[in-house]
Each structure stands twice: as structure tokens, then as C-alpha cells.
Write a structure and sequence with these properties.
four-stranded antiparallel β-sheet, 3 helices, Heat Shock Protein 90, 102 residues
Length: 102
């Protein structure tokens, strides 16, 4: 999850809401006692790009494949007119596991 937050912040700073007058909304649902964990990152009034070429492909791969696979969950990434939205869904035990490297 730390790698995902780094990617999200770096992309937002360079190409998204933090590069303009936009905003970011971060929300999560779940706890160690809950059956599921969800994380939501929503940018408003940001760019609709993850950056140029190879950078965008690497970011997309990290956010859509690597982090969810490590957390044994799934993720959705979309770029809309108003900015980027990234969501992760997983079992709470996977999100809060002490040996979880993502």
C-alpha cells in the first residue's frame, strides 16, 4: 500500500490535482475486525493522465496489478474528465497483515 500511495502522490504532484488547483479525497473502510477493506483515492480538477509513455505504463501496472496482487485483492483505476480515481478492495486480514510488503 505504501508503494501505491507514493505513486499516487507523485503522479498527482506532476500531472494531477496537486499540479493544479485540484483536490484529493482519500477514504477507507474497514478495520482488523471487519471482513473487508476498501481504499478510495479520488482527484478532482486534476489532469487526466498518469504521465508520458513508460512512466504511465509503470504507474498503471503498480496501481492495477502489483499492489492488489500483493494484498490478494482487486483494484480499479480510471481517468475521467475531472481526474483520476483509484480503488482497492481486499479482505481486511490481507490489508492489515504484518508481513504485507505492499
Amino acid at each position: 500500500m505504501g508503494l501505491a500511495l507514493h505513486e499516487l502522490c507523485a503522479n498527482s504532484r506532476d500531472y494531477g490535482a496537486l499540479a493544479s488547483e485540484g483536490t484529493i479525497n482519500v477514504r477507507w473502510d474497514g478495520s482488523m475486525d471487519a471482513p473487508a477493506f476498501s481504499f478510495f483515492w479520488t482527484e478532482q480538477n486534476g489532469a487526466t493522465s498518469l504521465g508520458p509513455g513508460t512512466r504511465a505504463r509503470l504507474s498503471w501496472r503498480i496501481l492495477e496489478r502489483m499492489v492488489p496482487a500483493t494484498m490478494q485483492g482487486s483494484a480499479e483505476l480510471s481517468l475521467g474528465e475531472k481526474g483520476m480515481i483509484w480503488t482497492v478492495f481486499t479482505q481486511a486480514r490481507s490489508a492489515f497483515a504484518s508481513d504485507n510488503a505492499a
